[in-house]
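Annotated sample (chain length 431).
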Amino acid sequence: MAAENKQSGNGQILENVQKPLNPDILLGQLYNRDPKLFWFLNKPEKIQIGWCREISWDCLREHKTEYSLPGPPLDMDVVVQTISSNSETRLNEDSYLAINLSDRNYRHRSLLAVIDGASSQLPIKALAEHGVSGAFYISHLISHGFPQSELYENLCKKEDLSAKEVVVAINGWVREQMENIEGVDYGDAATVPGAAATFVVTDFDKNIISIAHVADTVAILNDVNGARVLTDNKNKVFDDETMKLVDKIMVEEGVSRNVAAKDPRVSEQLRVSFRKKINTQNGCGILNGMPELADNNLIQEETIDLEKMLNKEGETTAFEDWGLRLVLASDGFHTFFPKNNDGNINASLICDFVFGPGTEYGKEGDINEVREKFLNDPLFEKMPRLKIVDDITFMGLDIVFNRDEVTREHGTYPYGGNLRTAFPVSYNHNH
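Output written by the structure step:
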């Protein structure tokens, strides 16, 4: 999360560990040190993130329009890339979810999310003892712990389920997990870490994609109408206040932006901003276990109706036969790209980067290029910001009807049949 104070005494820099980090070994060591605190890091191979080299999806299904016309099968491919700001010394405070959200009676629903952790303003004693931040803890608690929880099993059994309902449920579950950790006090928001997050539920039995969003992650839709941002960054107004202060310090002190960003007045501004905005009525929602997230209506909700994307004759449109693409990203990724003339996120540039112009996906290793370009701007001139580089994550969903590969691989099926297969998910993961 962009403008949070990430030097808050929460053990951001890992000491006395082998460099470069081996995330699989290190996370296992954290579990071994304190199984109660890091319970969610046990047996990570059970979870479809990060540790497996290929993730399978079961997304092919029969499609029928409301006019009872037969429709084509659907193919969803997912690509994920995430990398730490410094993979040799820092654990990645971004994380993500890519899991089924269905039981055996409900086979075509999935949950995907990008989660960007934000540390508390005050140290959390239990975590600092192990050299990890609140931002890392809460993002990985959600991505690793939620899929192992009873809550997850119960949500899988629900027939109707929106992304907002998932976020509200996870927020309550986070409270249960965090409130007994030494150093966390829900009576003082400055002690509670949280996460910016964008969640997506793809429900291909009901032809609905629902999105729920808080803070400064982003969701971008690319369909036959072009690329556009779906989410609202309620953290931007607070970031802008801080950046104006940095601009003022640059002028007053005659220093570069990277020096001004370290001025004590900036740290104080961040502390004041944190208390003013976190889940307050006119503030910014953050997934941290506070009921005010829902009570103050700080969860943005969007819905994509797939039925409406076919015309009455059931014919396909012209987006690669027919389809749509979604990009989810942390602010460490989307702030890299030049803005539109109106100062907003350039959705088209981001989609071209993630999926690659003329190719199915962006180039292997592109996310490393993003980090290198931040590192090659040490004075923060080309991309105004408060620190040299953030953790960087993006996820791309490519959803297509009538794809030739489906027909070739699976042959011709009657549309009343049981169409099921698995599609690989590509990713590049670095804690």
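Annotation: The chain has one domain: 23-429.
Annotation: The mean pLDDT is 78.
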